Amino acid sequence: MKFKENIRVLGIDDAFLDEEYSIIIGAIFRGKSVLEGVISSKIQVDGLDSTEKIIEMLFGSGYERQIRVMMLDGITFGGFNVVNIKELFERCEIPVMAFTRKMPNFTKIYEALRNLDQREKRMEIIKDGGAISEFKFDEHKIFYQKVGIEKEEAEEIIKEFTINSLIPEPVRVAHLISSGVARGRSTNRA
Fold first, then answer.
1. Is 190 inside a domain boundary?
2. pTM strictly above 0.85
3. Residue 80 to residues 8, 46, 48, 110, 155: CA-CA distances in angstroms?
4. Which of 32, 68, 70, 183 falls between 20 and 30 A from 161, CA-CA?
5. CATH number for the domain including 29?
6. What's residue 149's pLDDT?
C-alpha cells in the first residue's frame, strides 16, 4: 500500500483526569501539518476498556472512512489499560502503529502487573501487538509495534510525520491536548 502525501492520520494519547479515569484524545491530521479534528473519550485507570473506547471514539467521529493510519503513544493508557492493537486493526481495518521512546522492559512490566486483576490477559494483549522494531533516521530513534502495515511503509510514514519531536506529529499534538485538558496546561514531554 502506497500512502498519499495528504493522508489522514489519527494520533492518540492520554492523560490522567483523576485516580479513576484518564482522557484519551485523538488528533486527526490531514498530511503532516493540518490538524483537522479532535476526538475524545474517557477510560478507566488500569481498566481493560481502552481498545473498545478507541473504536467507539473513531466510529463516532465521522472520519472513520478517511483515516489511513492510527498512531498511538504506546499500547498502555491510563496506567495499564492495555490497547489490543491487533484487535483494533481487525475491527477498524486501519493499520495501527504504537510508539515508545525506549525499549520496554517486559520483566518490569510483568512485575508491575502483579497487583492488577487479569494480569495474564494484559500480558497476552501486550505480546499480541507483535515484535517491537527500532527505527533510526536522521538524529531520531524510535521504537514501534505495527499491525496491518509493512515495515517499509511504516517507517516512511514515521519519517514523514516526525517534525517537531522524536514522535510523529499527530501523537505529539494528541499529547499536548490531553495534558492541557487534564492538567489545565500542556506539558512538553512529547
1. no
2. yes
3. 28, 5, 8, 11, 27
4. 183
5. 3.30.2170.10
6. 96
Q: What angle do CA 137, 149, 74 make, to 5 degrees?
A: 65
Q: Is 93 among the domain residues?
A: yes
Residue-number span of the structural domain to which 176 is assigned: 8-183
d(CA 188, CA 46): 24
SS3 65: coil
Domain annotation covers residue 62: yes
Per residue in 72-121, pLDDT tens? 999 999 999 999 999 999 999 999 999 998 998 888 888 888 889 998 99
Whole-angstrom distance, CA of residue 175 vs CA of residue 173:
5
Residue 155, C-beta contacts closer than 8 angstroms, at least 6 positions apart: 135, 137
- Say which residue the cell 484518564 belongs to: 22
Largest Cα separation within the chain, whole Å, is 45
